[in-house]
Amino acid sequence: MSLLEWGYDGGGRRYHLNGRPVYCGTILELRIGCGWVPVTFGLDGYQRPVDHVLSGSEALTLPDEMELWWPDKDAPSTRKCNAASRSW
Length: 88
Hints:
Distance between the termini: 19 Å
Largest sheet: 5 strands, antiparallel
């Protein structure tokens, strides 16, 4: 599972994913149900991570346990989807 973690780099304190710093505007993949959806990473006014689904303008405030992944890496295998397990 890949979760965001607070860390430091040359620019100060920021979120990291799998050891890489995540900047506002970075494209990531968000696990929803049994699939991966491309999103744009950002922060709200309280420094909480939010994602913008690329097909719309709505921001989603991310719960701490939300899984994210880098689109340039192979995503972890997901459980087999079926109609009963979909939760969009």
